[in-house]
Amino acid sequence: MSEQHTKPTLPFCWEVKECDRDECPLYKNPGIACWLVDNTLCDGQTTSFEDRFLMVCSRCPVFLEVRKRAKGRRLSDKAMLATFDRMVNNLYSYHISLRDTNKMLEQKVGTLRSVQELSQALLGSYKPEEVLYMVLTALTAGEGFAFNRAFLFLVDSKGEYLEGKLAVGPDDYEAASRIWSDLSAEKMPLKELMSNWDEKKLETGINKMIRSFRFALIDQENVLNQSLLENRIINVPDASSDKRAWKAAEVLKSNAFAVFPLMKGQRRIGVIAVDNFVTRNPILDEEIEPLVPFTSFAAIAVDNAALHEELNRQIADLRKAHKRLRSQRKAIKRSQQLAEMGRLSADLAHEIRNPMTLIGGFARNIAKALPEDSELRGKAQIIADEVLRLETLLSQALTMTKEEKPNLELEDVNFLVMETLKLIESECEQKSIELLLDLSQPLPQVWMDRDRMKEVLINLIQNAMEAMPEGGILTLSTRQQDERILLSVADTGVGIPKSDEEMIFNPFYTTRASGTGLGLPLANRIIDAMSGSITVESEMGRGSTFTVSLPLKRRDNHESS
Amino acid sequence: MDRVLVIDDDASLRMLYKDELSSEGWEVELASSGEEALEIMSQRRPDIVVLDIRMDGIDGLETLQCMMTGDKSIPVVLNTAYSSYQDDFRTWAADAYVVKSSDLTELKTTIRKILQSVQAKDAN
Question: What does the alpha-carbon distance between residue A170 and residue A545 come to, in Å, rounded to a whole number?
Fold first, then answer.
């Protein structure tokens, strides 16, 4: 037994490591070199012998104990041990560097794969905001380039400014940790993250902030411009010591960031800035390198999206123009029909007027020939008078379609309203329309053609009634405003779409199947001839208010027409 | 007695006009077309012409044009059912434009005024 003590012995690994795992093949199994045994329960035992020995066993207290016990023996043993030690140490460092290189290579392959994936995803989308968002997401997602935040600035259409467009990342440092852990906990695949686009993402604080910034491209003292103008990536590890980075640092509120240009051929699209705002990790040049292929794809995608948007806008414009043309063509056709009808009715009027002249003329002729007290003379006179009345009616009907100088007199608008009211009261009652009057009194008299003004008012009231098929409130109001008298007709009806508000005064434009499209244009012309104007205010579902405005002072600028 | 030449293609109207204008003390001559009127005028100069516009053959405005190449001094009153002809610049060549009506007062007044002004001019 005493001999055993003098001979070098192997230490018991379960004792040195205070291990009590009895399922291990080494447990309470003395005399075995544990580092030579596969499938033990020690750390790292699943890897190969070389890996295990270099990475785990050579640093293990059991093995160190073995070396300690081997010390101080024969000289040859010492020399062998020293040689062995050195070889082990060298092997260890080789192994470490090999592992690091491997890891880096793997990372590079991963990045390249992401770039390819990203590029494909980018080129597949044409929604500008979505593309921009995808680009920035790719830069910040763990599977992508894993920067903390990314900011996009685009050159404006005139090429004079860099404008803040979009940002991805936490709003501020406080919010950062939460969002950051959420994000990394989710571990969403990049593709999903990128397709997770939503308009709301444009409304985060950081986005609103970035959109409020723009830089004149002419400013050479700005690292953002510099990157774009020199078409190179610029890494700013310490903005405080680089004057040209100050402006960008102020916007990004960050002292370390990298800026890279987006170019399509020779065309400057914009720049992207990235930083590690949360983790405060320095941005390494190796991290920036794989951005180069990515940025060229990103630039193409951003530019494509912009072109696509422009194309869409032009298509929309064309559609609108086409629609307008079509409606104009319809209006022209309509006006041709009306002109034809006008000619027909003029012909008709002529045909009627001739016999009327005859009938009336001879009746008058006969009446004169008869004795003054004769009954027949009275009857002939009646024929003559009635024919004259018909002729007058015919003339009025014909002149209605012609522009006429208004017969201006000083009149009371309130009086006109009351007079017109009598004509419509019963109709309002039938249609369950409540009539409200808000007449300002006293109201100065105003120059107007009373008959024509009445036509206008009736026209506006009829329109109002037709806007309220289910009943409602019709309000007639008058008031003085400076040198004008205003007369308003308000309904609580369906309202007029904003797009139609300009159109309703165009001849032959109508929204009603039965409308001629002449009512409002005629009213407009009449009021215009009185040097006044008609305006409309409307809200969909709430109703419309038409207001006629007439000048208190007479202006004869229409005398000449 | 002043001579009035009435040109109208409607026979009944010519009858009415002859009746009414004669009672004003004028000598009324009638023509049923522009051609006939020009023929009459070439033989004997009327003091005034009452001219319808819409007629078959050469119409009132063409007749007026022909008259302008001849004796321009004969006054013309255009008398038509069409008020719209007033927009035609050729009507400016006439001395007056009266829309047809069963009440001939306006036409008579117009004729009388023109004759008076012509006579006043001649007297000077």
Answer: 49
